[in-house]
Amino acid sequence: MSQSTTTPARSGDGTIGLAAALDICRDAVAEAERLGALVSVAVADSGGHLVAFTRMDGAEIAGPVLAPDKAFTAVANRAATHELAELAAPGGPLFGLHANGGGRFVIFGGGVPLQRGGQVVGAVGVSGGTVDQDVACAQAGERAWVQR
Predict the structure, then answer these.
(1) Which of 63, 59, 62 is nearest to 125 (CA)?
(2) Domains of the chain
(3) Across 10-18, average pLDDT
């Protein structure tokens, strides 16, 4: 993982409330609709705990597990999950990452950390489309957070 200058937020610092989490979900789903994808979206707080979750009608059955785990991975590693794939590949500095964290670490795209004041305060995780669609939807959710 590339070294980040951000750190996880302490309790009470820039927390992601339910209203914000629902806005993030809404914008991620809107992007999925634009792309023709059916996805699940999860928003986690700075401790990796689920704040909000939504699943589009017809979305694949793995999404309710993968979306929260992508959000958890992005918070825990302070990095987008698509950036972790190369780092966790054989010979990479984070090789074996996916086998840690009780099996919760996901090292393919769709998890994006959310920052406020230079600190990671949560993350959005998306699953159900192609990797590129999941990343685009998660980034749309991130934009909803940045615009708040």
Answers:
(1) 63
(2) 14-146 (3.30.450.150)
(3) 67
Contacts of 8 (CB under 8 A, 6+ apart): 46, 75, 78, 119, 120
Spatial CB neighbours of 52, under 8 Å, sequence gap ≥ 6: 18, 21, 22, 24, 25, 41, 42, 43
Q: Using an 8 Å Cβ cutoff, are 31 and 135 in contact?
A: no
DSSP secondary structure letter of residue 10:
P
Helices (DSSP H) in 11-130: which residue ranges?
18-35, 63-77, 81-87
pLDDT tens digit sequence for 46-80? 999 999 999 999 999 999 999 999 999 999 999 99
Mean pLDDT, residues 15-30 taken together: 96
pTM of the prediction? 0.89
Task: Give the pLDDT mean for 116-126.
Answer: 96
Rounded distance, CA 122 to CA 112, Å? 9
Give the 3-state DSSP-derived string for 47-79, with helices as H, strands as E and coil as C. Answer: CCCEEEEEECCCCCCCHHHHHHHHHHHHHHHCC
